[in-house]
Design a protein that fits this description.
single chain; 1% strand; disordered N terminus; globular
């Protein structure tokens, strides 16, 4: 029986074998795979088309309104961009400052105020997440401040600190603090119990547990709070520059609004929004770089 089966099954020939895959080339592979390149092109195309659609709707709204003081046309805003970025007949930009100077001063205020608010929010959030009785006492206060609109306490800051730079920086710092404090406190309080107990069992001190276990696990939520804080600071810059805000992009917007220069108002809002997108993109890149484990199980 065995000999008949062996005769019925032909022996494998060398030519019937599956050819081996060629060895990989030495060194890293260069170039973008076609599928990934196609996805990027599609995303870019969708964004360009959506931008063109928004511009078309804007133009239609301007034509339908037929009132430049109500809805300025895109061309009018572009003309203001050129005008405020140069010097004409001895007039330099808006209020004696170019558009880029207004934006730069506002960005400096936003970055300083955000940095102060983020630093204070991180410290307060860690304390709230680690010490239960402080969280019980201070958490309602943080929630109360977070619910207040910036203009609600800006007048009080002006009474305390005057009308120079100090109340503006305080306003942006106070506006940026609650999102970071709340996100940090929630992330620290929700740190993995198993990792914390394991670190303590190995003899780690309380500070070592916070530094080496709690904070690394909380970094993704902390970065989310930082991005929210910067966004709140951006949305508060117009309020911060309500009083004595020129030069400054928010002060320029407020001043142009008084004189019904709607095209300047729209230009200032676009400058704030586009610079905010740039800063948020930089924060996203830093988050990807510093927290490569985010989203992994």
């Amino acid at each position: 029986m065995t000999s008949s089966l062996s005769r019925s099954v032909p022996a494998a020939r060398p030519s019937d074998a599956v050819p081996a895959s060629p060895p990989p080339a030495d060194g890293p592979r260069t170039g973008t795979p076609p599928a990934r390149r196609g996805r990027r092109l599609r995303r870019t195309g969708v964004r360009v088309l959506s931008l063109l659609a928004l511009l078309g709707l804007w133009q239609l709204a301007a034509v339908a309104a037929d009132n430049p003081s109500f809805v300025p046309a895109p061309r009018a805003v572009w003309d203001q961009l050129v005008l405020l970025s140069t010097t004409h007949d001895g007039v330099r930009g808006y209020g004696g400052h170019l558009l880029v100077e207004h934006l730069g001063i506002s960005l400096r205020r936003i970055l300083i105020g955000s940095a102060l608010g983020v630093a204070a929010g991180l410290v307060l959030g860690v304390v709230l997440g680690v010490v239960p009785w402080i969280r019980l006492v201070a958490e309602p206060v943080v929630t109360f401040v977070r619910a207040l609109p910036p203009l609600a306490y800006f007048s009080l800051l002006i009474i305390w600190f005057g009308i120079d730079e100090t109340p503006k920086l305080w306003l942006l710092a106070v506006a940026a603090l609650p999102p970071v404090a709340v996100a940090t406190a929630a992330a620290v309080h929700g740190a993995p119990t198993g990792l914390v107990e394991a670190a303590r069992a190995l003899g780690a001190s309380r500070w070592d547990v916070i530094k080496d276990v709690v904070l690394p696990s909380a970094l993704p939520e902390i970065f989310t709070g930082v991005r929210l804080a910067v966004g709140v600071a951006y949305s508060s810059v117009v309020a911060a520059e309500t009083v004595n805000g020129v030069p400054g992009i928010g002060g320029m917007v407020r001043d142009a609004q008084r004189y019904l220069q709607t095209d300047v108002v729209v230009l200032g809002l676009l400058a704030i929004g586009l610079s905010g997108l740039l800063i948020d993109g930089l924060l996203r890149a830093a988050e990807t770089r510093l927290i490569p484990w985010r989203g992994r199980a």
